Structure formats: C-alpha cells, structure tokens
Batch of 4 targets.
Target 1
Amino acid sequence: MKRVLSRILIISGVMLGCSAVSVGYAQEAGAKPDAAKGEALYVDGDMGRGIVSCASCHGAAGNSTLPVNPNLAGQAHEYIARQLHDFKPDDDKPAKRTGPDGAPSVMTPMAAPLTDEDIQNVSYYLGQQKLDYETAATATNEATMQRGQEIWRGGIPDKRVPSCAGCHSPNGAGVPGEFPRLSGQFPGYIADQLRLFRSNDRANAIMHDIADRMSDSDIAAVADYAAGLR
C-alpha cells in the first residue's frame, strides 16, 4: 500500500494527504459482504424499511442510462461504501457529502435507512459487476480533446495542478479502494463533481486544492476526455 501511494505521490505531484482518501469502512471481524443480498437490495430495495431500488436510478447491474446518475458497475466496493457512508447522516450530524451550496444531496434520503451491512453488501455486489463499455459514456467534444488529454496526462504545471493519471491511472481505471474509476463515466457527472470539490460542497482537501486551480473550461475538457478512456 505504501509503495502504491508513494508512486501516486511522485507521478501526480500531490505532496500531502493522499492517505486520507484511503480510509475505508472495515467489515466486522470475520464478516464478509453478501453479494446475493446486495443484489436483492439493489434490484428490489426494501420498502418495509424505506429503501428504494438502486436500479431505478443507476440501471441494471450499475450501468446507468441517465447521465445525471453515475455508472456504478465495476467501481471498487470500498469506494462505493465510503461514498454511501458520506451520504448518510450520522445521528444528529449532517451528511459529509452534500449538493451545491451545502444543500442535502438527493442521495441522503436514499442512504439514510441503510445499515452498515446493507452498504457493504450492495457495494460488494456492484464491485463484481462489469461496466458495459458498449453503452457507457464516452468523449464527444473533439474541440477540447487535446486540452483534456494534456491535463489528464501532465496536469497544468503553471497552476500546480497534477496529472489526473497519477491517481486515477492512465486508462482511467483508478486504484481499487483508493481512487475511483472515471473511464466510461458521464462527462457531465465528472464535471459536476469537480465543481463540487472546487466549492468545497463535496469535502475533500486534496481534490479541493486541485479543482480550485482549474477553470470551467479545464474541467469540461478533462471530464470529457476521462469519459472516453478505456
């Protein structure tokens, strides 16, 4: 793990704090996520507990057909679990992950009734699914392709923006359990998240520092390019 993080630090130029994003949610000792239970919850929900079917928004097996809702298929289950925990309010404390201007995310009421076991099960199920690259999002803006590639591979040196590939890998596959896969993700969704990082509505110190140095055109270019990676 240390060698992986050290390599990421060297490539990306991010000098502090990368280990902070690796914090996961460990299973109880001896427990293992149940993919079958996760699939049942993902497909059907549990109306008795107020849990809505995830598939109604994120598509069959996590392959979303709606650009506003991200593809989840094949995303590392540790990463999905972390995000679900961040969407979920903690007793009297608000959720860590919010929408624009600090408004509650649309995911907050969806995540609120989930138990830790639910989160682990559904995340584990999604992590075993395959992203359908035949229908997944791809790059569409040829005019910004070169700029997006430059930012992805080399960052923006004069603004001290590191390369995206350093943490999310050259082909956008990410680093399991550490950094999410971005290849095949909807460009608009990626851009929205970068803007939320920039405004600090989605709290993440590393990504805030990076996105805060990026213009809207930089964000749009690299988001479109990332979607087309394979």
Note: The radius of gyration is 17 Å.
Target 2
Amino acid sequence: MERYDIAVIGTGPAGLEAAITAKVRNKSVLLLGGKGSSDKVSKAHTIQNYLGLPNVSGEDMAKAFLDHAKSMGVEITEDKVNAVYSMGQYFAIQCHGGDYEATSVIVAAGMTAMKPFAGEMENLGRGVSYCATCDAALYKGKTAIILAYSSEDEAEASFLAERAETVYYLPQYDYNGKLENNIKVSKDVKPQAIEMIDGQAVLHTDSEDFKADGIFILREQIAPSQLVPGLQMDGNHVMVDRSMATNIKGLFACGDITGTPYQYIKAAGEGNVAALSAVSYLNQVK
C-alpha cells in the first residue's frame, strides 16, 4: 500500500490550503473530502474580509479555492473517513471506499452541528457503527438499521442488503430513491435514542422502535473524538497548540474544528501553519 507523506481530511479553506502548502513543499498529499469544497463556503452570500477577494460571493470563493488547488496539482479523493488510527510510525485511515496510510495527518473536517443521540457514544463498537460497507461482511443473514443523511447513502444500503437478511433504511433527507427487496424504507421518522437490549440494538424514534443486530449512522461528519481515538478535546473542539499540533504525535488540526472564530481567512491561515508543521515533523522523522 502506498504511504503518503501527509493526509489531509477536509476540503474547506483549511484543508485546501494545507494541501496546497504541502504540495509546494514537495510532499505527497492525500486530500480526502468532497469535490465541491465546503457547503459553508459555497452557500455564503457575500464575504467582505478575505484578503484579496473583496465582496466575493461564496460560490465564487469556493471556485477560486478549487481552481487554485487544481492548478497546483492537488487532487481530491472523494471519500468519507470513518476512523484514523495512530500506528506509531504512521497513521492508518479507514474510509468507506478503502484504507489508506500516511506518515502525518491534518484534520480539517470542520464542525458538525449534529449532536450524538442518547446512547450512541456508549454503544459505539457494540452495535453502533459509522460505515456500512466496512462492516457489511459481519451482517450475513442478520438485520441492520441505517440512518441516512444523503442520497449517496443509498448505495451503502444496497451493498449491505446483499449480505444482510433485512435492512431498515431511515432517510433523514428528502428521499426519492427506489430501494426495494429486503430494504424497508421508513420516511419521516426522527431518531431519538439508542440502547442495547438482550444483545440487540434498539432505535427509539418519535413514532416507533426498530430492533436489529446493529445500527449504522451515516452522517457526513463524525465527532473528532470518535474519528481519532485518544484525541484530546477542548469542549467540542480539538485542542491544538500554536503549531496546530494535537496531543497525538504527527497529527495536526486546523480550521473550524479547532474553535472560534469561524472565519474563512482564519481557517486558511491555520491550514498553512498545520502543513508547515507537518512538513517539519516529517523532516524530524526522516
């Protein structure tokens, strides 16, 4: 397996700037995220305080960011990151589409407004998971629940249904799909809590309870503390020093995920610092 020098998670201002800076420093870069950059940027009406781009619309700013990255040879690998594990001399990155390795990692995944459901964190790894394709082999002849937040999750449901006996699909978006056979779709159902009862995962909703062997929560973003085991937090934010270093050697964080102010120019600046710090770390390792 190819081992990259630096893996960057997130394609907002912080992640793109980190990837560009790492590329300038002649490092091999794996940039993981959406190819459309950050919705927070692209949907902004007007930004007035970004140096060199006065009164720019969010859509134009996002295009400028992506065009800059492309011109530098930065490629985006469109995949969802499920977990990042420190292996000592490198990091193992588990994604929905496969696994990757990198000597250093920069987390620039932004902030999620979604709070965990009651019982979610307590049962993580004990019936609750964030990647249906990763664990599909464990559900042969079993029953599973999928909480889906995007139409892209329908492919994961179909993949899981090839192995599982029954899949309950609960879309938390405007569902217009055609999932069928052993996939049972329940629309307009709002999850409330999760608990384990007699070895089964029970999802309590506002209308009924669903029971299965496991529950998959396919949010776009995962809480940083769950994304990287052992990561030190400051409330809901990743704790970093001025070099953007976390408590895990070789792992850096930048952008909204490190705290306020939630400003594009601040995020990009931190992305630059994180990349330079990662390059310094690589030089020390070598």
Note: The CA atoms of residues 5 and 38 lie 24 Å apart.
Target 3
Amino acid sequence: MTNRNTTRRRFIQVSGVAALAGLAGCSSSGDSDSTTTEGTTENATGNETTTAATTTEQAKVTVETDADGRLAFDGPTNEMELPEDSNPEDGYPPAFEMQLEDVEIDDSRWESKTIDGTEITLVPFDVAYYWYVRGEARFLDARSQSEYNVSHIYGAVVSPAKSEMENDPVASWPKEDKIVAYCDCPHHLSSIRAAALKAEGYEEVYVVYEGYGAWRSAGYPMKGSSPKEAPKTWTVNGNVDAEYAGEAAWAYYEDQKEATEIEEDGSYTLNIRFVNVSADTEVTIETPAYELEATLGALTEGSVSTDGTVE
C-alpha cells in the first residue's frame, strides 16, 4: 500500500543566516517541529571550517471540531498559489506545504446507500477534504470528460460511472488503497461508480455525500477551464409505475449523464447539471419503462408522465 501521508509532508530546507531570517517571517497555524544542526569540517588545506546551519521546519495546522461535529481547519483553497501535480494519474492531490494534526474521525453521522446490493459509505465533504489535504486518499470524478474538463477537484482523475473508458487510470491503483469518488448530483453517479469498483475487489471506496457542489462552493482546490463556475441546474420531474421503485432514471447528452433513484411511488427528480447546454438542447430520458427525447426547456417546464410523454 502506498504510504502517501509521508510523501505529503514536505520539508523546507534552509541554509545560511539570511535564509534563516527569511524563514522566521513565514507564518503557520499551530505548532511546528524544527531542528537545527551545526558542525565543522576540514577544507582542502586542513583548516577547520564551520558548516552552515540547516533548519528543517514542518508546518502543523490545527484541526478543530465545530458544533455540528464537522472538522474545521485552514487548508489550501483555490485562491492560493497551488503546487504542481507531479503525477496527475495517481488521483492524489499535489503535495501541500502543511501538515494537519492527527484527529480521530467520528463516523457516527455518516450515511450509506445500497447500489445493486452493494453498500456504499457516504463520507461528509469535510472529512474528504481532511483526507485530501493529508494525501490519504485517491480521488476520482464519476462524471463525464466534458464536465471534468470544465471543473474538477485538483488531482482527481476522471473515471465515469456506467462507461467503458479506455486507459482508465483507476485500473492501475492498488485495490487496498483508500478511494473517494464524487459527482455533482450530489452522490448517485459516484455511488454507482463506487459499487462497480467494490465489485471489482477495491476494498475501501467512499463517496462524497454532499457532492462536488459543496467542494466548489467552499473554494477548495480545483482545476479546469472554468473551475469556479457552477453549471445551471435543470430539474426534470417524472413518473413511472411504482413497480420500478429503487431502480434508476437517467438523462443523457453526448458523453454526459445524470441519474437518480426512483421513489416508492414511482416518481423521480433528475437534477441535471450538464455543461455547454441550453433550453434548446435535446436530451434523452431513460427509465425502466420508457425512453424519450425532448429539450431541456420542455422537460423543465412540464413533467414526464408514466407513459413517457411530456405534459
């Protein structure tokens, strides 16, 4: 298993009096560990010289718990100058110049859902962010390549749900590593992807409960052509016979897809957050009972009846 946590702890090496003075002006939250070494060596003439002092300092960030039991700390945001991601295929974030305190994670408020008989754990996004900053988990985006290109978690790879992707980087990840999947619906597509991974033998797969929208709103590290831009939500309400309760209703446009669970009474609500679409864009709605094509404008102004017509 890759011990990513140790590689995430970046050390700052400083040599010389001027460099030490510059380091003293750097701020950090919480305590820090530092060591200073000084010694002597002999030069080519045999005379004794004093080596420059070397200081190793590691920033430590305090992690608190708020009234709702959520983790709170000052971590990296999209407004900062973010480090380069040296390995974009591994799903890990770049190495941030900070170390978060070790805290006990309270999983008593976590929920789960079942997809095709597989139970999926929904992790709150504050915990997902904690793992992210510490480099303890690999992240995957279960949406489409189109949506990923516009905005995604910095360091995450695209690995769409219900899609045969060539050269999916997740295929090379060790099956014992911690994996966090996310989508924007907020967690149905990612749950489908997580269930498929667990069926393939991946042992520790989680889904961000609040979805990518919460990450985007918080301003955490993102990349893409318009990383801060939230896509418009198109809400489609529909119905099928109640016998299909628990199955999925889907929306498709080009490589983009959205899914939701059909309720006990046969109703469903699809919150579609596709990119590069308008009211005139024709999308496909697919349920176990019917398939239809209609514009987003027509679908959101009306509703879909049990016979698959837009009313």
Note: The mean pLDDT is 85.
Target 4
Amino acid sequence: MDRVPNLTPADAAAAVRNPLAFIAARWTPDPRTVRRAALVALVMAVVIVVTGGAVRLTGSGLGCPTWPKCTEDSINNTAAMGIHGYIEFGNRMLTYVLCAAVGWAIIAARSQKPYRRSLTRLGWAQFWIVMGNAVLGGIVVLVGLNPYTVAAHFLLSSALIAVAAVMWQRTREGDEAPRPLVGKSVQQLVWALVGVTVLLIAVGTVVTGAGPHAGDSSEVERMPLNWEDVSKLHAVLAWIVVTLTFALWFVLKAVDAPRGPLDRTRELFLVLLAQGAIGYVQFFTDLPEILVGAHMFGSCLVWIATVRVLLALRERPDSAPAGLPLQPFEATSASIAGPR
C-alpha cells in the first residue's frame, strides 16, 4: 500500500481555500465511479420524495411541530412524540443523506479528467435546489402544512429529479455539441409531451392539496376545490400524455429512428400504463395510503422516463482524435441528422 504523503503547510492552506480543486489534483475517478455517483444522487432524489409522501400519508407532517429544531427545546424528536415524531425526524435526517449523495456527485464530477464544467454545474444545481427545498420544507411546517407550500415543495423536488436525471445522462456522453437524431417535427412533439407531463404533475399536486390526506390528524387547510373533479382533470391529462407517447412511438417507427429514442419511448409508455392502473385503482378505492404512496413513486418514474425521452433525441459523443474516421454509431447519427 502506498504511503499517504504528509501535507505541507502550503497544501493545507490550498485545501482550505479550495477543497474541491485540492481533491481533484490528487484523485481521478474512474468514469464508472462518476456515473454511479450521479445515479446515487438521482435515486436519493426519488427516495426523499417517497419518504416525504410517507410523512404526509401517515399523518406525521407535524410530528416535529417546528423548524429547524424538532421542538422548541430539542433538535431531535423525543419518545413522548411517538411514532409521528420518529417518522418526521427520520425524513429530515434523510435530507443529510441526500446532501451527501449530491456532494459525492459534485466531487466525482469535479475530479474527472478532463475537467467538465457543465457536469460540475449540474451537480451544484442539485445542491442549491436541495438547500432551497430544505428551507421550503421548514416553511411548510411553520405554516401548518399549507397545501400551496406542500405543492411547491413537491414541484421543487421534481425539478431536482430532472436535473439529477440530466446529470446522470451527461456522465455517459461527451462534450461535443449535441447532434440531433430526429427531425424538428419529432422534437416539437416531444417538447409538447414534456409540457403536458409538467402540467400533469402540477395538477397532481392540486389533487393532493384538495384531497383527504392533509398530512396531520389536526385540522389542516385544504385547497378550496372538489378533489374528485380535479382528479378527473388529472386523468384527462394523463390520457393526453399516453396518447402523445403512443403517437411519438408510431412516428419514430415510421421514420426509422435509432433504437435509443424508440427504447426510451417504449419505457415511458410502460411506466405510464402502470401509473395509470395505480391511479384508477386508488381513485375507486377512496385513496388508500399505500396506493397513494405508490402513485407518488410512479410520478417520479414517469418524470424521469419523460426526461430520458427528451435526452434520447440527440447524442453527444466524445471528440474523435484528428484524422480518425467517425465511429459507426457517429456516422449513422450524422446521416440521420442531415447536413448542418
């Protein structure tokens, strides 16, 4: 085993001034390590959403009645607070695990050689979203689970998932300018799909804000809407997303698109079918907590699958050394994209 060199005063000062640069100068992670770090950050972004849903569905939203401490006198929950205190405080602790995962992704991206500024920025974007959502989560508690703040909390978590999914994809790509694999009309169809999916998720938060699962056993303000009517609108939007996904798959087959976009579209279609089945069952069974939780998890998967469809419409290969011909997959995509 190699001996770890002693740090000189200059090294120590450099580590304090810029710890990321200090680590990057002494460590080069394997590309698989960077990809795994980005994937872990994405997984934790989903986990924090699901566990946050568990807090609400178990009525533990005010298990810790204040923030940033759990009670006025204690930073953590106490035995007298019961199971709800453990659930809420446990979810707060998972935020630190999420921060660690995002931090690991930032360090791995920053230490990769050659240095990729775009990848590091995606990691920092996740960090600031996590920080913002932590503060928003505290506001949710301080205002007694106001449904509008709860909805904003979920939507910001969805933004985190999107950025994490993009970073995970970018770890498997190069830094050349993106090369389109499909025509402009197909791209416009996918952007329409993304837009309706965003609207679908947003309306889903309204269903939550008007529905019976307020997040606590006390009297909690609800959105002044009939949740069943909003649920029907949510279902209509879901069918529009399914229809657009099927139309996209049909168009991709018709233009003989590469396997990447086709595979991602098929994955989205299957996830939508499963999510739709859960949605209808929970609606007709009066929203049992376990199915609502599964639907929240499915919402994360639908959003990730949608982002992956969008990212599959182009490729960003590594730069080929001068004088070498394009690799086969590059030549194929170049012919599909046409002259630029």
Note: The longest helix spans residues 82-111.
